[in-house]
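Sample A.
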Amino acid sequence: MAKILTFFLLLVTATLFGQANHRDSIDVLHYNLHIDITQIPQSTIIGKAIIEFSPLLNNSNSFGFDLQKLTVDSVKLNSNTIDFQHTNNVVSFVTTQNYNVTDTLSAEIYYQGVPAKDPSGWGGFYFNSGQAFNLGVGMRVNPHVYGRCWYPCIDNFTDKATYDFYITTIPSHTATCGGVFQSVTSDANGNKVWHWKIEQPVATYITSVVVGELEKVEFSYQGLNGQIPIDIYCKPSQVSSATTAFSDVPLMLQIYENAFGPYPYPRAGYTVVNFNSGAMEHVMNIAYPNDALTTSLSGQTLMAHELSHMWFGNSVTCATAEDMWMNEGWATFCEGIFVEGRDGYEEGKKYFLDNHRYALTSAHTNDGGFIPLYGVSHENTYGTTVYKKGGDFVRSLRGYLGDSVFFAAVKLWLSENAHTSKNTYQLRDFLTEKIGTDITPFFDSWIFNSGFPHYAISNFSTDGNQATVEITQSRLGGRFTGDANKVNVSFFQSPKVYETCLVEFDGKRGTSTFNLPFNAKYAIVDYKSLLADATIKNEYMLYGQQQSFSNQSFIVYPQTTTDSAWIHVIYNFVKPEEHGQIFDGIELTPHYYWTINMESYGNFRGRARFYHTTTQNPADSVWKPEPNDRIEMLYRALPSQPWVKIDVQNYLTWMGGYAFVDSLRPGEYAFGILRNDSVSTPAQLENHKCKVFPNPAKNRVTFFVGNTNCTKIEIFSVSGLQVDKISLNNATYIEIDTNNYKEGVYIVRFMNKSALIESRKLIITK
């Protein structure tokens, strides 16, 4: 009885341990996987996993491995059959002997069944149109790593091991796996057994298998450390297409080796799978979807993206899902590096700027708001912020450090940390140590803060050849940070004659004076777009043709055919500084403004169209025009001057539209809102269904809703943050204490459930 009770307690201990701590208690050294994939029509696999491992704690006797959905038939430890439990997707067992960190154990787990797929439809194990294959991550499962869907393992980003795969197929099928092909033999049933080997430690989620009717297309590349075979597996009908589509892979390897150092594996490989939604960076055996088998730019950059993961993600792996930008952000950046290496710097720059525009305009709407790159939530692990803003950050780090320092430091990072897992803080500290400059403030601003910094010239003056410039830093979608700023400012004598100087400062403002070889006419911050801040920059030389400025909601129509002009436009995604009273009490929109620099030749005159847009997404500012508001065009020649209203050909409504400026001039342009309730006089209050009084308010304010069916009142800051929500409980008015409100302007939204009734401005004074 005592023995039975002891065993029961040990088993309970093992179960609890396996569920909660098993991933932190085992270091897997090697997986020897024997998997029968002959029953594709039945969507089943039969497997034997031989796992060599060591405990991470002395006196360990409880062990567990992840295995989802599949049925375990038996378990052996060191060749002896033992009792086990398979609960909550963990195969756990307890031993009568204690083991230490110096011990090496061997577990054999026999299992079979129908493998799992991620509920999102992306990730897991698939049986599609005569193929069987895995995709190593699941969008919804937690953790995202998904080796456990087809073999027992320690399924996380940090436990790396070597592998032998023995995949059994029917005679007409081929099996491809990550690693290097060793042999193919026949078993007693006449089936084929394919042996593949990975000798470098890799995480479970980047291991792979594909089974089906496959043929091989071969390329090769003479790498820095020797010849690299490139194997493309595809269906026989795809051989011609694959030969063309993958022909640039040797060039990709050359570009990436030049940028990041030697390719970290002995083979490069892709297998085209019967899947039409994304690719997966399995080590040396990238799963590539049918629909991407093309020579288009999107197809090429997808190939390059996944190949770059061999450096960023596969060799050096993010330590946690919260560090995923270290995988996907770097790979997004590498897409641009491929385009730059193939087509030249300017084409690469265009690619980077397209990515930047998407990050600025869509990351926060897709991911439910502006979020930091580090510490992303589970639902945003593979979101737009991680990919697009992550790529933006790496490009900005390159611009911040300069090419020579950046690429040298990255090569050191990859070589000294090959085949390990690292987190964001370790990358920051490594770079700080290697380059000899503390880049903590840069990471604070770009990684650990949400949104994007914004840099603008707030003042510029010259005294002969001496130029003085003041840079102002603000923020789109995040709290303000920004010490140790390094911003390039280009001083122009003409569009082709300019001098670039570095302005360094802490905080919101920095002023520097430079001696130039000429008298500068104007200055442009970050002219080369080296930093992915909250701007989009474009320039064109116009020779009589209409020109749409890409991604800037701006078009110029030359009114002369013989003269020309150089026009540089900065599209700013923040509210500009006001610098004094705005004409007629007009409110600046908080969304965007344009900075125009231009050099005209002859009698050039340009008619410009500025587009106004609104958004209905709550992640953006709630300070939007209302139906009775009027949209006006504002202008100032210099950033240090007040804004004034200018006459335009107005095709603007509260919902959007555009305005024509008949004669474009250098300076800044913005839209303003003339509110229908800029003040709340007793007479004006009668024109509204809902009322706010007194307004401005100091200590208390009353909201009157009458018979509007208003159920709640929401109060927002002008930056879009919700500061209060008040339930009315069928009352027609409510009075609240405003002593806890900061002085400033607020937007009050009167709501019926989720429908907006009216929006009013509230001013709090102290």
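Sample B, a different protein:
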Amino acid sequence: MRIIAVRACGLQSNMTIIFGNVLLIKNTMKKTRSIIINSGVALTLILAASFPVSATIPTAEIDAPFEAREYTRKQVISSKQTLGQLLNRHYEKQRLNDDLSSKIFDLYIQSMDNSRSYFLQSDIDEFEQFRYKLDDGLIKGSLNAPFIMYNRLQQRVTERLSFLLKQIPEKAKGYDFDNQDTLSLDREEAPWFKTTAELDVLWTKRLKNSILNLRLADKEDDAIYELLTKRYQNQLNRTHLANEDDGFQVYMNAVTHAFDPHTAYFSPRNTENFNINMSLSLQGIGAVLQTEDEHTKVVRLVPAGPADKAGELQPADKITGVGQGDKGEIVDVIGWRLDEVVDLIRGPKGTTVNLEIIPSDSNDLKTKVIQIVRDEVKLEEQSAQKEIIEIPQGDKTLRIGVIEIPTFYIDFQGRQEGKKDFKSTTRDVEILISELKQENIDGIIVDLRNNGGGSLDEALSLTDLFIDRGPVVQVRYSNGYIQVLPENKNQQAGIVYDGPLAVLTNRLSASASEIFAGAIQDYGRGIIVGGQTFGKGTVQSVLPLEHGQIKLTQAKFYRVSGDSTQNQGVIPDILFPSLFDKDKIGESALDEALPWDTIRPASYKAQREFQQWLPLLREKHQSRIETNPDFIFLNEQKSLMTELRQRTDITLNEKQRKQEREDNEKQRLAIENQRRKAKGMELLDSLKDEDADSSKKDNTAAISTDDSKKDGSKKDDAEKEDKEPDALLIETGNILTDLMNLGKLPSGNLQHAKRH
């Protein structure tokens, strides 16, 4: 039997996850093949073993030309194999023609020089001869054109780094930080520079900005020049070590990306790392990383992983340095290869890694250092957790059960071995529901915030706890075949809970989360509240090549209503304000993402219709949050962050930069103290007294979930009392009770259907 690895998840191939996920074997089609399915939002390469970064990289000479790399026979074979898989098996059928060649050309240029700061206009003009010839090269197995372009890039990179290294001892010490120079932070659509002199001006400003950032971090000038010299020399050394596999990977990912952002080529080394993931060797910090320009960016965190539990590292943060141990020296990693950065971050369980980061909400590239203790992700730490919140309703108080599901997990090995007590999301939630019933709850909230997906089977079976028989999701394959899941024979009659239900989502709720939330919404079984979900609605398979392997999008998820979960995600019935930037996070933020579309609805029967009550529910919700200190705080934070995101230039005037930082800190402090005053809390003298960076989450310090759920430990009552209530969760409870009153829904402690 042929084994094909399939994922209902994954982002671009220049990503690495420093952990793993649980995999599930499932027969998705009535054919003789097994498919491994995982419906998480972002997972590509799992790096677990620790390989030390080489300390003996040879020193490259300044202005030494880059030695051109040549492609190999194995790469030619793999390029043809990749082309065949793309044309014959990709979900979105495309013709290999001049239009596709042009798209590949643009994506290749973009992937090599997204900020338009290396190539000259003359380079681009020269490359134009290849725009409509890349398709012919793929057919013939010729990689001449892409390697010419790649080698030119590496030469330009060496020239820029050499320029910086010559600037530091000769001119940098005389830079003027009192003038009105500014640096553009967004050059994706900027014109290409025509001359080297114009490039020199840009890179001089970049160097000034780097120096200024370090000066504002209270570093002495001599230490600054030493650090930057080491940084650029290291980058130059690594540039000269780039090999033919590096060039081939960049090009083949442009080819695959032309079909969709989740289709990707894995080099032999990345293939090895993927296989490590398949062996479930899981140690590290639990973070999905991606290269963006010269920085390493955090894409998402693994639920219950070390980084998630530490609470300081957030999606879209950029890692600039890595240190080991409590007092280990921070190694500057700007410009490093992604795999080399990962080599520094990962390590044995129980050891400490220090990360210097640029927070995602920093508009002036200010850095801070955080500590994370490496560990393994334990299945029990990803388990569903419950709590009860109380919602006052006139002269009575309703008790709402909350079930938080960090991921859709299953003990795959335990199930294969036939263990009766193997852990799974559905099994755990069923137990939690039973316990909540015994505590006389009036309704249930399923909290899927930050749940990036997981086992598809678990999404199906979890839905079965709340909906009595019927389809949950449709899967359309590249050949047009549509499979409706689950098949009736796999469903149990009856449901575990038929009382009032709400599902809470945010931008990081993805894939399996979207399948569950979409089904609950389509059936009218419950109300969906929170943020628009990620929009990851495609399925990938991993196929071997002569040289590496390809991750290929071969199927697409659709709701029972016929709507795709792709790109658009699930739009809640009642939307909460969100601090997540949709331009940076979510399927719609990815170039070449497959579109939202529809197919024929499945045969299903909606249980209830909430549409008639939605206008009044929204009106009641809006009335409450207008005077709610936490929602006022969230909206003001959103406004401030939106304002900062709109800035495309940064001043290189030291006094102005310092003043902008101080003004930003004052604004944030004022917003926080306004909230505290309204709630009768002690005011802060400085944001240092509070986790200032928690404001990046939808669930901020003011509206954060109980941390006791994250580490799996039980907190004593006194400690729980010190925790602020989760305002988003409380408001979800208010909305659910409003629905119960409007719709005359029976409370959850009155109806408990049994499964049989």
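Observation for Sample B: Residues 49-271 form one domain.
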